[in-house]
Design a protein that fits this description.
The protein is of the alpha/beta class. About 5% of the residues have low confidence. The chain is built from seven helices and twelve strands. It has one domain: TIM Barrel (Alpha-Beta Barrel). The two termini are about 30 Å apart. Strands 1, 2, 5, 6, 10, 11 and 12 form a seven-stranded parallel sheet that branches. Strands 7-8-9 form a three-stranded antiparallel sheet, with no helix packed on it.
């Protein structure tokens, strides 16, 4: 098996981690652990997914988060509810309608509300895992002006969107390139995401940092799991499975 380049990194993450997706997260953990040679990935934790699965009240799942964190899994704050209840207009309306299924929670929040949810989520998750969180990633990777302003004040070391990873304290871009992810909510989106992953395997190998993100819904479709497995195996040959914390120096991929 080829040895990955020490200068190239593979950043993998499991989104929407919380009590409501316990079984699915366990399944994805097993797959990533196998293909990456250990717990060399991140989890994006939702404190109360859609207001139906409060992490604060689920002690068994808190214990799992602490154990994963102790094993080396990085923990990001991933919104609070994950659900978007704001009214949108203009560009934001297009993003809310076409880029996510009502889950862009931080797209329409004002700065005060966004900052409160960020800091509350940070406090909750850090109390559970007993160490600093890795950063903040908005649900669906969507940030409105209020969320962008709040990020500069929330004290997170890292943030991420579809196209980059950056330090919100000074806006230094730490990695560039599209995140490879999959969609399960419709046949058309599933097919297009599988096609994009195949294209990414052919075209993104030159990037210094490749990002792969999986979601609990992916486990419902064998075709998605097969594509995810193939993509992980492909990039693990050329890119070293790494922690997000390793890209803290600005200009790594610029």
């Amino acid at each position: 098996m080829p040895t990955p380049s020490p200068s190239k990194r593979l950043l993998a993450s499991i989104h929407d981690v919380g009590p409501g997706f316990d079984r699915q997260v366990e399944q994805l953990c097993a797959l990533l652990d196998l293909r990456l040679g250990g717990p060399r990935f991140a989890m994006l934790v939702v404190p109360d997914h859609w207001g139906q699965h409060p992490l604060r009240q689920d002690r068994p799942f808190q214990a799992k988060l602490r154990a994963w964190s102790d094993a080396g899994v990085e923990m990001f704050v991933h919104g609070w509810f994950h659900r978007d209840t704001a009214e949108h207009s203009g560009t934001a309306s297009f993003k809310a309608r076409h880029m996510t299924a009502g889950e862009g929670e931080f797209l329409g929040l004002d700065e005060t509300t966004a900052l409160a949810r960020m800091t509350d989520g940070k406090a909750l998750i850090e109390d559970i895992i007993g160490r600093p969180s890795a950063g903040f990633i908005a649900p669906a990777w969507l940030y409105g002006q209020g969320a962008q302003a709040a990020l500069a004040k929330a004290g997170f070391a890292l943030a991420e969107d579809h196209w980059k990873v950056w330090n919100p304290r000074g806006d230094a871009v730490l990695a560039k390139g599209p995140v490879i992810t999959w969609a399960s909510r419709s046949t058309v989106r599933t097919a297009s995401s599988i096609a994009f992953a195949a294209l990414a395997r052919q075209t993104l190998s030159a990037l210094r940092t490749v990002r792969i993100a999986v979601h609990p819904g992916d486990v419902r479709k064998d075709a998605l799991l097969s594509s995810i497995d193939r993509t992980l195996r492909h990039f693990a040959k050329s890119h070293r499975p790494s922690a997000y914390a390793e890209i803290q120096e600005p200009g790594v991929d610029s």
